[in-house]
């Protein structure tokens, strides 16, 4: 199943429509909040299957502002991230995803792209197409689920090379080029570039190294 994942459009859907029109074979569009009315408008105009969650701009502050989406590779935890306080730490969202038996946690809120694997669980933030915190044209995520696992990447708008993850052909993204293409590598590239999400990597550089989990859980983006 091919998933287009976006977040934090904040009423500006021009780039979201542009991305969707450039892609083919999207089975489900996932909108990770801010704002849910944007997801409703996308569904109305595109007629595509959409799964959405509410964000802080939707005034959603209940204890269950998340959904669990079953796929061929396992369950995906979908949340905007504000209730898990992802701007201060990823610890809460990791725990929530684990509690729900999920293989990945997808979230937004920070407006910063992230694609990382922590102890077998993926963290995916598509960033924002409309208001990217790191500047640039905005980003989105493309994920493919199958019985073999999860593959995917973060893509900048109007680019044929991913920031991190695996390429659309399933080949590894070039880690050096991906780093150079990131606007603020000290903040965004805390996520390791994975050779092939869902598959074991033979490259030590692309795997989560000792101490990475501690740094990830203590991460603060100051926004």
From TrEMBL:
User: Which Gene Ontology terms cover its molecular function?
Assistant: hydrolase activity; metal ion binding
The cross-references to InterPro entries, in alphabetical order and at most eight, read: Calcineurin-like_PHP_lpxH, Metallo-depent_PP-like, Phosphodiesterase_MJ0936/Vps29
Q: What positions does the domain Calcineurin-like phosphoesterase occupy?
A: 1-146
Main EC class of this protein? hydrolase
EC no. given is 3.1.4.-
Which SUPFAM superfamilies does the UniProt record give?
Metallo-dependent phosphatases
- State its cofactor: a divalent metal cation
Keyword match Glycoprotein: no
The ranges of region (Disordered) come to 164-207
Could you tell me where the Polar residues compositional bias lies? 166-189
Keywords, in A-Z order: Metal-binding
**Family designation:** Belongs to the metallophosphoesterase superfamily. YfcE family.
PANTHER family linked: VACUOLAR SORTING PROTEIN VPS29 (PTHR11124)
- Its name, as the record gives it, is Phosphoesterase
| Organism for this UniProt entry | Aminipila butyrica
């Amino acid at each position: 199943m091919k998933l287009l994942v976006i977040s934090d459009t904040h009423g500006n859907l021009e780039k979201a429509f542009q991305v969707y029109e450039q892609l083919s074979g999207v089975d489900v569009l996932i909108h990770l909040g801010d704002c849910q009315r944007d997801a409703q408008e996308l569904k109305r105009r595109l007629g595509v299957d959409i799964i959405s969650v509410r964000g802080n701009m939707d005034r959603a502050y209940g204890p269950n502002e998340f959904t669990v989406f079953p796929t061929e590779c396992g369950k995906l935890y979908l949340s905007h991230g504000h209730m898990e306080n992802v701007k201060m730490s990823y610890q809460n969202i990791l725990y929530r995803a684990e509690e729900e038996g999920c293989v990945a946690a997808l979230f937004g809120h920070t407006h910063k792209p992230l694609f990382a694997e922590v102890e077998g669980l993926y963290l995916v933030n598509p960033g924002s197409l409309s208001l990217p915190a790191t500047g640039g044209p905005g980003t989105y995520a493309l994920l493919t689920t199958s019985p073999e696992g999860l593959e995917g990447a973060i893509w900048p708008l109007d680019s044929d090379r991913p920031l991190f993850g695996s390429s659309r052909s399933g080949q590894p993204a070039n880690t050096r080029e991906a780093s150079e293409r990131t606007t603020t590598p000290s903040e965004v590239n805390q996520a390791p570039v994975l050779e092939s999400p869902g598959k074991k990597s033979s490259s030590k550089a692309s795997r989560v190294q000792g101490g990475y989990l501690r740094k990830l859980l203590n991460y603060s983006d100051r926004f």
